[in-house]
Input
Amino acid sequence: MKPVCTTCPYCGVGCGLLASGDGSIKGDPDHPSNFGRLCSKGAALGETLGLEGRLLSPQVNGAPTDWDSALDLVAGKFSAAIRDHGPDSVAFYVSGQLLSEDYYVANKLMKGFIGSANIDTNSRLCMASTVAGHKRAFGNDTVPGNYEDLDLADVIVLVGSNLAWCHPVLFQRIQAAKAERPEMKIITIDPRRTATTDGSDLHLSISPDGDAALFNSLLAEIARQGRVDQNYVDFHVNGFEQTLSAAQATDPEDTGLSADELQLFQDLWIGSEKVVTVFSQGVNQSVGGTDKVNAILNCHLATGRIGRTGMGPLSVTGQPNAMGGREVGGLANMLACHLDIENADHRKAVQEAWRSPTICTKPGLKAVDLFRACASGQIKALWIMGTNPAVSMPDADAVSQAIKTVDFSVISEVVEHTDTSVMTDVQLPATAWGEKTGTVTNSERRISQQRAFLPAPGETRPDWQIICGVARRMGWAEAFSYHSPAEIFREYAALSWQAAALGCDFDISGLSGISDANYADFQPVQWPIPSESPGADRFFGAGGFFHSDKRARMVPIKATPDILQHGNTFRLNTGRIRDQWHMMTRSGKSPRLSQHQSEPFAEIHPKDADELGLRSDELLEIKSATGRAVVRARITDRTARNTVFTPMHWSGANSAFGRVNVAITSVLDPFSGQPALKGGQVKLRRFDALWYGFAVSVAQILPQSAYSAVARTESGWSCEIAGIDVPTSWEQLARKVLNLKTGSISQVRDSAKGIIRVAIHEGARLTGLFFVARTPITIDRQRAASQVGSNAQALTALAGLPPIGQPDPGHLVCACFNVGSNTIRAAIHQGAATLVDVGNCTAAGTNCGSCKSELQMMINAAPVLAAAE
Ligand SMILES: Nc1nc2c(c(=O)[nH]1)N[C@H]1C(S)=C(S)[C@@H](COP(=O)(O)OP(=O)(O)OC[C@H]3O[C@@H](n4cnc5c(=O)[nH]c(N)nc54)[C@H](O)[C@@H]3O)O[C@H]1N2
Ligand SMILES: Nc1nc2c(c(=O)[nH]1)N[C@H]1C(S)=C(S)[C@@H](COP(=O)(O)OP(=O)(O)OC[C@H]3O[C@@H](n4cnc5c(=O)[nH]c(N)nc54)[C@H](O)[C@@H]3O)O[C@H]1N2
Ligand code: SF4
Ligand SMILES: [Mo]
Output
């Protein structure tokens, strides 16, 4: 069987893949987003395709039902709410992980037929500040440049981006360009040290939210050095003088950088015309996110460094279809094809194209307000699609409560139990990645197709079909009578012609006549794709902005650094880890991906840890007025004093108290409504565990106790656990934790040291291991996990020894090729002195490269280790 060309369902790089029904996944060498490269998550997709935990039939009030009954119920409840309380009494909360065709029909149903704009998306938590910043500066939400600019730039500045972990294939692309042209400079601006800062020439550890001050200072320096592109500004830009004055009023000390660091950065930025400024969530997820975006754009506009090869601002998108969602108008304040709700001509064009009975006339509720309206009773019927707000929204307990409060709630999901789905009245089973076909747009405006290469399991249906099924039952059969995603795509592409005629950037009208056969054979293509002429590669090189006077706006920015910091609280910074995707409903199925980091943690500075009386690997309680989380402490100076960094990935489905968003209150950017998810205000305390434990079982372990985090292993599940009470029987506790009712128990106890180790055998097969101690468990997890499911003897297993005759690979470092630390150390010991040597000997680091900084640290440590031996 020939493999199917498809696109990765994870990040906004949008890598092309070759996928086969047997689960083998390779990078597509011909796809222009990745040219065959993949990262650890993309490479492990084959391990996530199993049907374990999938939602396979519609459920109403916890019982399976047929599609007709479920869809009748949903349509009936939404229609009744609209009839009794008006169109604004219902809401959709959707996702940048839907395909454009799904997203387009959801938006059409809400804005054109129900007649409300109460549809918002998780992009509100993600890209909203960039959208608002782009619109202020350019008139439309336009990404001016391309990935190719990263190959050609002389200076690349990464602002609030951990590209090495979050957009690894772009990071590899930059590293490859740097290997060819070592004079190229990579600068990363992040308050914390990351794998990305490790791989940069210069790391500027700015104060949290110091970004606007940094780019304001840069603008002032551009003017001081006489490096403004006066011609470009005169012809294409408004607002230069006021913006410069505001920038000159900024105190450079607000960046938290030394004068030397600041000068070095400014000289590098100003000194090379070919500079690309890449930005991500350290910019967007801030109370001043939109201002940060404009502070960056101001510098590119003032120097005319935009829309030409090798230069420009580049916002990297998070989700696979974050960009497509913006294009279809998934945000509550947008119409399809980048048209504006507030503009009567735009509304008319959309309504005419849709031949719809109505059209929303004002922006709808943005995510945070939408859930508040659920809590207050204004929203009577809520439909969530492809997102898990009970975990991913700030003030997550209040959001959970809001969902419970709504009279009627529905979710379209692919897995059976998420923290959100268990609170909804109706669960509709959607086909997952690999089972459905449609388009997505990546960070460089490139539209590619995700294609089915597996059959739809059980009763699952693609999201667009589910939405159309409800719309038809609500009385709009004709407008939602699509038979295929191709049909939806043609309508959408035709609407973009109207948008372009009204002066918008988004034009894919050249695809409005695409045949079913050509849609099936869709090749990756970048917009604009006008019908008459070939589209340009980039925007704004010669002006042509989308404000009515065709000029850009520089926006005066008042830099207000770290305004969230006050009192004796810590600043809670949050984000991502290398090998997990969001709430792990898919990446968490891969044992390989679950090994790199298998529990929620907080990076905390050694001095802060000292003051809290906290030792390494103990537990930390993170608390605010809204909620509390308990996570493992990682004491490191990679994070600054008075700040902690925690990953966002743990939920109630896999941890006891790992949902960190319960402790983040909803503080919003005033322009975009995006929450400041990087600036939580929390109190910290050492969590007084009486005992610490580690468990591995062939059976599924469930989160429990005062602290626990569950992860997949090759032969089952593992769990980090801790308790605050002494159980009546350790044997009983072991059985409960391991979820093993039967089997014979062996145990080792050292009461003086407070150590208890339990093994359970079913015949000769070791089915579970449970280690308990008064202090954090130091046992080698990988080794223990590899023994469960085998015929290992109790004594060997409980001693934590490797099975006889097997080498111990050690802690997993390279997830792509499953290479552990011991294997790498052995290679280094035998003379491997560079990354290339280590790669040649062990294959580690030769695929996605995300582990290179870890490998380099091991190489650097080698002489020290050798001396100590
Ligand atoms: N492995 C992995 N990759 C992913 C995802 C995933 O779940 N896992 N999710 C995808 C999605 S949806 C998104 S949106 C992207 C996000 O991609 P990124 O934005 O790169 O990732 P984050 O880890 O959220 O945050 C980036 C950095 O912002 C820094 N930061 C915090 N506050 C500030 C500040 O005030 N200023 C500056 N300059 N930096 C600050 C943090 O320390 C952090 O290192 O990743 C995508 N890729
Ligand atoms: N503290 C903190 N919180 C954050 C962030 C942060 O940096 N810090 N980042 C924010 C950002 S940028 C983002 S993007 C959000 C992400 O947050 P969420 O969107 O809540 O995260 P996911 O776990 O990806 O949720 C997607 C859900 O859709 C389901 N799904 C997968 N495929 C399909 C499909 O084809 N159809 C349907 N119907 N469902 C499907 C998955 O099983 C999963 O449950 O989190 C935000 N929250
Ligand atoms: S970089 Fe990794 S996660 Fe992102 S699209 Fe490519 S393979 Fe997927
Ligand atoms: Mo995101």
About this structure: Residues 691-799 form one domain.
